[in-house]
Amino acid sequence: MDPDEPNMAKGWREMKKAITLLGMALLAVMAWCLAPGAALAQDKTAPNQAKVKEFRIVRGMSPQARACIECHKIVSPGIFDDWANSRHASANISCADCHLVKEGEADVSQAHYKVYEKGDNPWATSKYRAPVAGVVTPKDCSRCHPDEAKQYSVSKHANTLQIIWTIDPWLNYGLNSDLERTNGCFHCHGTVLKKDKDGKLDPLTWPNVGVGRVNLDGSKGSCAACHTRHRFAVSEARKPDTCGQCHLGPDHPQIEIWDESKHGAIYRSAGTKWNFNAAPGTWTPGVDYRTPTCAACHMSGSGPVLTTHDVTERLSWELQAPLTIRPQDFKPWPAKSSWQQERKKMQAICLQCHSDQWVQSHYAQMDGVIRDYNEVYFKPTKKKLGELYAKGLMPKDAFFKAPLWVEFYELWHHEGRRARMGAAMMAPDYSWWHGFYECKKRYVKFHEEADHLISEHKKAYVAPYFPGATGSTTKPPQIFGKKK
After folding, report:
1. What is the pTM of this model?
2. Which of 48, 185, 188, 255 could pair with 244 as two cysteines, CB 3.0-4.6 Å apart?
């Protein structure tokens, strides 16, 4: 027997005891760490030990904001449902964040104050009383979307009332009634919001979400024209139906033209599978969608071109004007940048899907169409109209009272626009049959009658009465200032 064996055995027993005690100690520490308050104790006694990360999202809101939500759940569940399914709701943006204003401001809803007096709803009581505006404006939206609001403010959309009041005979000569304007022109172009003597919004100006609406807070436009309330979905604004609410019909049939084009045909075939919900700035051709909608060409970011809410960017011609001109030469609202610069932006959009030769050739064709329209159809007809004026055969203020003047008007306002826009957006039926073919018919008819009047020195027929010509001819002082 080894003489050291008893000592070795004793050493092993002591080591085993030490390991057992250490294990018990570790178990005790683990139990302590898992106990309530351990993190606090750990901070005090062992500051260098790793801490457990606590994840927490605080979604608090004021009592007034909560009252808005709970009240509208009851009184307008459709509005609540739209908001509840919006990105705003998921980001904790409540009614109050958009509608709350300061006491005494011009757009405070007086009618909303009376809601708190009824007592028929537990959330509509005096303790939740708050000043709100019924009309949310770009100025309100700019608190969270400053770049978008600034871009929109300089666009022809936001300033369309100034444009049409500058050039449109319907308004300047009172050729349609105020009611006709409210239910027609102003639904797209916008009204000048006013309050009646009781502090309620004037029904001749509201409801309205026109792109150029002049709001009570001084701002222009309505974001809800494209991002309808209260969902405010970016996906909705990216789809052609949104633009087609206003850009349709005989004088500006962009939605019909686009629908006829290859772009529209591909969208109808495959558009239901595209990702219209991509985050702003990430909507990518070839990934999220196969072919452009209106927004993809005129607003959305693509390739090197950044997103813009100024829809008048990227244009190299004013196709809606009687004589096609460059955007910087459009006097009612001249562009601040050169057409060459903006053409490069639009061509960069096209190049995301097309070759350079394809893009350049398309623009060469469009420029040719514009040259032909200007030189072959519009200029000779405008010259002939000027001859009638000069010879006193038609008064310059005849306008729609003279059937011959209507022929001139529709040559550029209807057929001429369709020919040009059809070429710009690749819709052959609109460029030819609805465009140049009709231009030819209109041209021949106008010149035949004009030449006859000149040869006979006979005055053009001007109706002694024009129905509904009762509209105000006073330009809105909110835009043009008070008349001196």
Report:
1. 0.85
2. 255
Asked whether residue 32 carries a pLDDT value surpassing 70, the answer given is: no
439: left (phi > 0), else alpha (psi -120 to 50), else beta?
alpha
Across 427-431, average pLDDT: 98
Residues 6+ apart with CB under 8 A from 245: 188
Q: Which of 399, 401, 405 is nearest to 385 (CA)?
A: 405
Residues in a beta bridge with 126: none
Token pair, residue 407, equals 């022929």
